[in-house]
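Structure first, sequence second, as always.
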């Protein structure tokens, strides 16, 4: 659960949206916190950062979930709300060269939205795979391969809980965490 300080008095729809986000519980490996939101894109906005860690507090993935609200709507959104997200995670070196991986990663997003019953339209996004190699004074660093998934969509209602749940499930998948069956709680051991 994340506590949000977003102003809620100006718009009943915005108040409902913020309340719905605050109702979401996540597994202990996912750390959510409010971060500064973009101020010029919409009259109302809130941003949530996520860090996905393992039992040794090693970062597995991170990302942002941003909600924009314009009571008058915006033509490009086709609605009064827009969700803008990204997730970055390390991936296996052999996956970075697999041309089908982009399709697979995008299908994870679509699957999580569908399984969370998060009604939406006007979705768009990108999947990027990168390889980084270090040279000279940094040559002792291991190569890095990463996935970055960026997406935005327009939710059908101001109840955004299912959208945040879908996105945190996507973060779990990108981080390589084993999925939890419904009703099961993850226990993280501090060693």
């Amino acid at each position: 659960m994340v506590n949000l300080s977003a102003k809620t008095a100006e718009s009943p729809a915005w108040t409902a949206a913020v309340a719905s986000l605050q109702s979401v519980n996540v597994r202990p490996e996912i750390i959510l916190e409010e971060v500064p939101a973009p101020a010029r894109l919409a009259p109302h906005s809130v941003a949530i950062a996520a860090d996905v860690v393992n039992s040794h507090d090693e970062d597995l993935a991170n990302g942002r979930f941003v909600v924009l609200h314009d009571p008058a709507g915006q033509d490009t959104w086709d609605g009064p709300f827009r969700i803008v997200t990204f997730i970055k995670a390390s991936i296996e070196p052999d996956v970075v060269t697999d041309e089908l991986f982009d399709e697979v990663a995008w299908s994870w997003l679509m699957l999580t939205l569908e399984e969370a019953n998060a009604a939406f339209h006007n979705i768009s996004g990108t999947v990027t795979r990168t390889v980084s190699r270090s040279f000279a004074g940094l040559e002792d660093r291991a190569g890095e391969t990463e996935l970055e998934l960026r997406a935005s969509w327009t939710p059908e209602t101001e109840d955004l809980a299912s959208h945040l749940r879908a996105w945190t499930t996507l973060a779990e998948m990108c981080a390589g965490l084993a999925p939890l069956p419904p009703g099961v709680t993850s226990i993280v051991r501090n060693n």
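Margin note: The chain has a mean pLDDT of 87.
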